[in-house]
Every structure is written in C-alpha cells, then in structure tokens.
Amino acid sequence: MNINPILTYLNIFLFLTIFGNPVFAQNNAKQITREFEKAMIRDSLPGMAVVMVSKNRPIYKKCFGYADISANKPYTLKTTQEIGSVSKMILAVSLMKAIELGYFTLDTEINTILPFKVINPYEPAHAITIRELATHTSGIVDKQGIYMNTYRFNFKLRPYNTEFLKPMSAFGYKQALRDSSFSKFLFNYLAQEGNYFSPDNFVYNKAGRTSSYSNIATTLIAYLIEIKSGVSYKKFTSIHIFKPLRMKHSAWFISELNLNNQAQLYFNSKVKIPLYDLLTYPDGGLKTNALDLSKFLIDMMNGLSGKSVILKPESFRVMFTPQFSSLNRPVGINLAKRNKGVLWNLYTNGTIGHDGDDPGVSSFIEFNPSTGLGGLFMCNKYIDDKSSLTDIITKAISKF
After folding, report:
1. 237-259 burial by CB neighbour count: b if 16+ within 10 A, else e?
2. How many CB atoms lie under 10 A from the CB of residue 357?
3. Crossing angle for the helix pair 22-42 and 387-396, to the nearest 10 degrees
4. What are the angstrom distances between the C-alpha of 309 and each of 86, 247, 301?
5. Distances (CA, A) of 219 to 51, 90, 126, 188, 281
6. pTM above the 0.90 mark?
C-alpha cells in the first residue's frame, strides 16, 4: 500500500494540533513545508503564502521568499496582492446573494435588465441568460486586442524595469482604452452601437453551445448586480462579503490599501512589474492577503451545512451543482477533467476551486467537501504551470 507522505504529514499534523503534542505536530508540518520550498525553487518564485484550513480555522500557515527582493522584504500572511481570477469566486457569491435578494434568477435573460441590448450577431434570436454568463457559455469572448487594454498600470507609485514594457506590449497590454467605468466599457464592447463592437466579440458553433472562458462575460454579471442593487459592485461586495467576514485587508483598487503591504510583482526575479488596477475589476482585480482569503475559503466550506455568514445553504447547493452532463455538454469543455458550477470549477477528484493568473500574479483556492479541508496559495509572479503547487494542496486536502 503506497501512502503519499504529504497526506500522512498533514493528517498527523491536524490530529496532533488538536489532541496531541504540538512539538511533534510542528515537526510533521515541516515536512509539508519542504514540499512547498522545493516548488518555490522549481518555479523560481519571489514570494508566496500558503494557508490550509479546516471548517473552523487555519491549520497550516506558511510564507516563503520575498514581497520585495531588492528591499529584502519578506512575504508575510499580511502581504496583499492581486489574485487574478480567484476574484471570480467573490463574484459567484455576489451573484447568489443577488438571487437571494430577489433581483433575478440564473435563467433571467440579460436583455430584460440591461439598458442596452446584447445580441450575438451569429445567433440573433438567442436570448443570453445569466446562467450562460456564469458558465462561460454565453457566446461572448475576450478579444485580446481590446481586453488586454483594460489593465491600468500605475507607473508612478514604484520603480519598475523598462524591460517589462516590451513583452507586455507584445501581449497587448497597451492601456489604449479611456473608459471611466466597466459599465461604459461593456456598452462599447457589447452593444452594436459601441465603439469596440465587432462580430469577433462573439462566437457560435453549429454543434451547440460553446464553452469559451470570458472575463468580459463575467464582468457583465457584476453590472447586472449594480443595476438591480443600485450600488456599485465594489460597495455590494463590501456590504455582503468583506464586512461580514471581516476581510479588512481586501479591496479592488491600489488606493484602498496600504501601499507598504502590497507585494512587488515580478515578471521574473529581476524584472519588476508596476502595480495595476483593472477596468473590469470584478473578473480578476481583487487585492487581498492570505489570511483574508482563508476566511472566505472557510465560509465556502461551511456553506452547505448552514454555517455560512453570507449565504443560505440552498445558494451553496445551487452554486456547487454541476451545470453540464454528457447530454448537455458544451463544445470545448472536457468533463473528464472538470465540470462547472456557478463560476466555480468542480474537479473530477471531488474538490471545488479556481485558479488565478495575471501579470506578476498566480493564485489558487480549493476545498474538499468530503474531508472538510481546504487550501490556498498566492504568489507575486505568474506561473505558467502551477501543478507543482496545486498538486501539493489537492493531495493534502484529500483522503488517504
């Protein structure tokens, strides 16, 4: 019988932390730490925070490397940074809260709410629903030449390497848009009379609904919430998520957080990336730290049992229900690897989570309903292949 040592160490650590010798438990935790240290070296990461949790508290907290290499400033549990598309899990909860408040349902047609019409020119008779936005099957796609310009780098706050500019420009990050809000951007991108409208902003496949990951489509969910709630998405998330969970170090914009606590972002160990905000901030712009994010993760794990402080159990049931089957599988999705809930990924190994990537950013959040364990990491460099880190977390929160 082959037992993964990472699982052994974590389970012994959990048991002993609660019932046994804390020194012995600490010794086993060090074995887990070594696995992360190896991954740090393998992926040449500047800094990283890792937290693993049970349903009531963190059970493993560890930081590695630096928030700022040149300043010799260590990465800590209080270091804040962008978390990329893990931000969409905040949007998932916001969507379910909006449904609880009676604003709409998952099957509400978006054109019954929007002040402009969104019509896929390839299938003009199709009425796009909120469920399709939340499962990336709306037909809306991110046109790189437009979407990459929604990133707004701040070149004045900190020194940065000019070497950063060339590859970023090649990828399309040129800051060419001047929209003052994501509502104006969405109009310009999706409305036929908009400045950026093009049939290329949509996709259609005669074989059926198409799975196409879209940041713009998910930002449209936040706009629907703004319209129905009468407050900004920023304020909505503060009222319904950050304040109830006491996430005091989480915000959507650089100016809202202490600059000294914000990690330096890296293209590589020598090239620094300026801090930035997102015009379409609901899709990936959350800035937080590992402790705040662990509070959110714990609440997600407690949701189905009725112990969440932000959503009802029925909302969690809907949010974590597989949206596809072999009978209604969209073109482009491989159900052998994962299904979709409401924005969340439902992995075939039984875990639920999501990852995040952006310039100078990689993150991951995941929990296992059957074991009641979860984990997350966030680091200040983009990682093309996060498997060396995600595998450690996935194995550690799973059964023997």
Report:
1. bbebbbeebebebbbbebeebee
2. 19
3. 160
4. 20, 13, 11
5. 28, 12, 20, 14, 8
6. yes
Q: For residue 81, name the pLDDT band (cuts at 50, 70, 90).
A: very high
| Helices 88-100 & 215-229 angle (0-180, nearest 10) | 30
| Dist CA 200 CA 217 (whole Å) | 14
Question: How far apart (Å, rounded) are the C-alpha atoms in residues 240 and 247?
Answer: 11
pLDDT in tens, 109-126: 999 999 999 999 999 999
79-356: CATH topology is Beta-lactamase (3.40.710)
With helix as H, strand as E and coil as C, how does 288-347 read?
ECHHHHHHHHHHHHCCCCCCCCCCCHHHHHHHCCCCCCCCCCCECCCCCCEEECCCCEEE
pLDDT at 166 over 60: yes
Q: Would you say 211 and 205 are in contact if contact means Cβ atoms under 8 Å apart?
A: no
278, β-bridge pairs: 151
Confidence tier at 13 by pLDDT (50, 70, 90): very low
Q: Answer whether 328's CB lies under 8 Å from 399's CB.
A: no
Overall size of the chain counted in residues: 400
Q: What angle do CA 136, 138, 139 make, to 5 degrees?
A: 105
Look up residue 353 and give its two tokens: 């989570």
Q: How far apart are CA 277 and CA 288, in angstroms?
A: 13
